[in-house]
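Input chain follows. Return structure tokens only.
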Amino acid sequence: MAQSRVRFIGSRELHRDLPKVLDSLEDPNARYVLTIHSKPKAVLIGAEAFLQLLRGHTPSDRLLALQLGALVQGLESAASTDDSEGASEVSDTNELIEV
């Protein structure tokens, strides 16, 4: 089974590299988490990957959903408890998560 690659990408980087990102989404295993101010705002997947999700979830897709859910919940919790110190930041936009 092919491994999903999740890459965090900031809005500026996405704007700058949009043609390259769109080309990479031809790979049905490519996944991007769009971040704004280091907080996840959207997940980008290709059309084929989306159709595969509609047809049925694979174990790797379920794992990805759990990981993204934990990331989003973790950031929301940090923002609500650490407002005076600032929210936890997602690491560098070039980070890859292997699932």
